[in-house]
Specification:
Blueprint: H1 8-21, H2 23-29, E1 37-39, E2 47-52, E3 60-65, E4 69-71, E5 75-84, H3 86-92, E6 109-116, E7 134-137, E8 140-141, H4 148-151, E9 163-164, E10 172-173, E11 176-177, E12 186-189, E13 195-197, H5 204-224, E14 231-235, E15 241-247, H6 248-254, H7 258-266, H8 268-280, E16 285-291, H9 297-307, E17 312-317, H10 320-329, E18 333-336, H11 341-351, E19 357-362, H12 367-376, E20 377-385, H13 399-404, E21 409-412, H14 418-431, E22 441-445, H15 450-458, E23 464-467
Parallel strand pairs: 14-17, 14-19, 17-18, 19-20, 20-21, 22-23
Antiparallel strand pairs: 1-4, 2-3, 5-6, 5-12, 5-23, 6-7, 7-13, 8-9, 10-11, 15-16
The structure holds zinc ion (2 copies).
The site of one zinc ion (ZN) has 4 residues, from loops.
Domain Alcohol dehydrogenase-like C-terminal: 296-429
Pfam family, one: ADH_zinc_N
Domain Alcohol dehydrogenase-like N-terminal: 72-200
């Protein structure tokens, strides 16, 4: 579906209009004595339509009561746009642990504040938010601020108490029966949610085109600690699958130490049987499927690596169209995944002066890509693994060859915190005219056809789908 651009001017107009709509309501509230909870304006509708997800069932649209009172710190956000991403595909398939179905998905959204309680929120400069402000919010919420990860190691993305909008908030739970995700006309924002006003010039459609992948990519590039002039490889540039053959015989007999030795020690019979089979049969290729990410995190990694001053950004992906797009995002070199692995390694070495890349960012989601990353990174380089969001199985590496002797730093990357969220928006507001994030959007869906959008992302026919629950003209 073709989309007209939502101009920032139009949203300035909407912002003014909304402020005017709320003016009378605000006047009524002047000098009003607030209690611990605040009544919600009768300007708002009595009911909210929201999408509801259950495992492997069609998404339904259900009605929720508009909250009549807000506890101190809570906000009602009228949704302008949310998104459908790879996480939603995994959620629908029941692949994520600890999800309290049924839920309203949509962990990243942008909207305007339709109602708020007293002292609902201030920004990081202490400026209070007001009704009518166009804001987005950090999807990660309720980190405890009291555990080892929050206080000592300062890695709040591993706080066990953290909740995520659109993922770990049930439709019925401690906050009552409410839609707490972006696939909804209105979103209930719990007390303590961290908001950011969209900067002037950054319109909601552009912002949502980066969406959740923006924060994740910025975190991954932070982890990579890219220096000016570094060479960077990004594995995976968007949603795709690729099929590749591996020679099991070669892999088995090339194993030095590690699993082969353990197998000899633990189960010599099995080792001998396997060896016999591999020696006797001539055809030992197995088909491996690179199940690449549903999400364009890799594309934003390319953009951020390029902005960070990398001398070369080399992208490996299974599809030429995505590689072409990666060039627009800042890639200097591209390599098709169908190129045999030996040649891929040679190409990267040629580009990097024979050493391999200073940094490899694995954003593909295919476990075998992690092994490939070890082959492409230089001795003493950094390998960041950000694509393995769900468990797709094991991969064989040789700890001596790939890690110890190679002196490689391997860095996992999970989730994002407020600093990633804040800086991602800051960078996007400055760079979105040069970097074509918005071109990644392939379709817009409302609550009625949201199953089509989820299917399109699942089948990887489009890179980015936006959700427009209030049918705002795009
Ligand atoms: Zn904590
Ligand atoms: Zn997402």
């Amino acid at each position: 579906m073709a989309l007209n651009l939502l101009s920032s001017q139009r949203f300035v107009f909407i912002r003014i209009l909304l402020s005017a709509c709320h003016k009378n309501y605000m006047n009524l509230r002047i000098n009003q004595r607030f209690n611990a909870s605040t009544s919600v304006s009768n300007i708002l509708p009595k009911h909210i339509n929201a999408a509801v997800m259950r495992i492997n069932q069609p998404i339904t649209v259900e009605q929720f009561d508009m909250p009549t009172n807000l506890p101190d710190g809570a906000i009602i956000l009228k949704t302008i746009l949310s998104e459908i991403c790879g996480t939603d595909v995994h959620l629908h398939a029941g692949k994520l642990a600890g999800v309290p179905y049924p839920i309203t998905p949509g962990h990243v959204a942008v909207g305007y504040i339709a109602a708020m309680s007293r002292n609902a929120a201030v920004d990081i400069n202490g400026q209070p938010f007001r009704e009518g402000d166009i804001v987005t919010f950090l999807d990660v919420n309720e980190t405890c601020g009291a555990c080892h990860y929050c206080l000592v190691s300062k890695q709040s993305t591993r706080c066990s108490k953290r909740k995520v909008y659109g993922i770990t908030y049930p439709n019925e739970g401690p906050h009552g029966r409410k839609p707490i995700g972006g696939w909804s006309e209105y979103i209930y924002l719990t007390p303590g949610t961290k908001l950011i006003r969209l900067p002037d010039g950054l319109d909601p459609l552009t912002y949502i085109s980066g969406g959740c992948g923006l924060n994740t990519a910025l975190h991954a590039v932070d982890r990579a600690d890219i220096n000016l002039g570094d060479t960077v490889v990004v594995l995976g540039a968007g949603p795709s699958q690729y099929f590749e053959f591996f020679d099991m015989k070669k892999m088995f007999f090339d194993w030095e130490g590690g699993i082969r030795d353990q197998l000899v020690e633990l189960n010599p019979n099995m080792y001998n049987k396997l060896k016999k089979i591999l020696l006797e049969v001539w055809f030992t290729y197995i088909l491996c499927i690179w199940t690449l990410s549903h999400s364009p995190v890799g594309q934003s990694c390319v953009a951020f690596a390029s902005i960070s001053g990398a001398a070369a950004v080399i992208v490996v992906d299974g599809e030429q169209t995505r590689l072409d797009f990666a060039r627009r995002m800042g890639a200097s070199h591209t390599i098709l995944l169908s190129t045999p692995e030996v040649q891929r390694i040679e190409q990267v070495k040629t580009i990097t002066g024979g050493n391999g890349a200073d940094v490899v960012i694995e954003a593909s989601g295919a476990p075998v890509a992690v092994r490939s990353g070890f082959e492409l990174v230089r001795d003493g380089g950094r390998l960041v693994v950000v694509g393995q969001y769900t468990d797709l199985g094991d991969v064989l590496i040789n700890p001596h060859v790939h890690i110890n002797k190679k002196h490689v730093s391997v860095l996992g990357c999970w989730g994002s915190d407020f600093s990633h969220f804040y800086r991602a928006i800051a960078v996007m507001s400055k760079k979105h005219l040069q970097i074509p994030w918005k071109s990644m959007i392939g379709g817009s869906y409302n609550l009625q056809n949201i199953n089509d959008g989820l299917q399109a992302i699942k089948e990887r026919t489009i890179v980015k789908a936006v959700v427009n629950p209030n049918n705002i003209q795009l």
